Amino acid sequence: MAKKRYTEEQIVAILKESAAGAKTEEICRKYGVSHGTFYLWRTKFAGMAVPDIKRLRALEDENLKLKRKVGELTMDLDATKELLSKNW
C-alpha cells in the first residue's frame, strides 16, 4: 500500500473534526489513516496550529541532519585515533 503524507493543514483539519465530536473509527476510515497514526497525530499535534506544525517538522528535519553529521564526525575521529595509536 502506498504511503501517504498528509499536509499540516489536513492533519489540523482531521484533528479538529475529531475534537468536534466525530468518532475516531469514522475519521480513520474516511481519510484512510490507521488508528495508530491518528492517535500519534493527536498526541503529537494536539492544540497546535498549522505554523506550529510546520516549525516542528522543520526542527525535526534539522535535528536529523545534525545527528547524521555528528555520527560522521565521530566515525572520522575514531578512525583518526586508531591510525595515530599505531606504532610506525
Low-confidence stretches: none
* Global shape: elongated
- The rounded distance between the terminal residues' Cα atoms is 57 Å
Mean pLDDT: 91
Give a description of the structure.
It contains 4 helices and no strands. With 88 residues, it is mainly alpha-helical. The chain has a single domain, classed as Orthogonal Bundle (Arc Repressor Mutant, subunit A), CATH 1.10.10.
Structure summarized in a few sentences:
It contains four helices and no strands. With 88 residues, it is an all-alpha fold.
Task: List key phrases describing it.
88 residues; mainly alpha; Arc Repressor Mutant, subunit A
Secondary-structure blueprint:
Layout: H1 8-19, H2 24-31, H3 35-45, H4 50-85
